[in-house]
Amino acid sequence: MKKIIKYVIIDILRNKIMLAYTAFLLLISLSIFNLEDNSTKGLLSLLNIILIIVPLVSLLFSAIYVYNSSEFLELLVSQPLKRKTIWLSLFAGLATSMAFAFLIGTGIPILLYEATPTGFMMLGTGLLLSVIFVAIAMLAAVMARDKAKGIGVVILLWLYFAIIFDGLVLFILFQFADYPLEKMMVAITAFNPIDLSRILILLKMDVSALMGYTGAIFNNFFGTQLGLIISVTVLFTWIVIPAWLSLRKFKHKDL
Amino acid sequence: MIIASNVSKRFGKLTALDDVSVTCNRGECIALIGPNGCGKTTLIKSILGMVVSDSGFITFNGKNIKHNWQYRENIGYMPQIGRYPDNMTIGQVLDMMKDIRGKKHTVTDDELISRFGLSDILSKRMRTLSGGTRQKVSAALAFLFDPDVLILDEPTAGLDPVSSEILKEKITAEKNKGKLVLITSHILSELDDLVTQVIYMQEGKCCFHKSIAALRDDTGEQKLSKAIANVMLQK
Question: Searching chain B, which residue's CA lies closest to the CA of residue A255?
Answer without folding.
Answer: B50
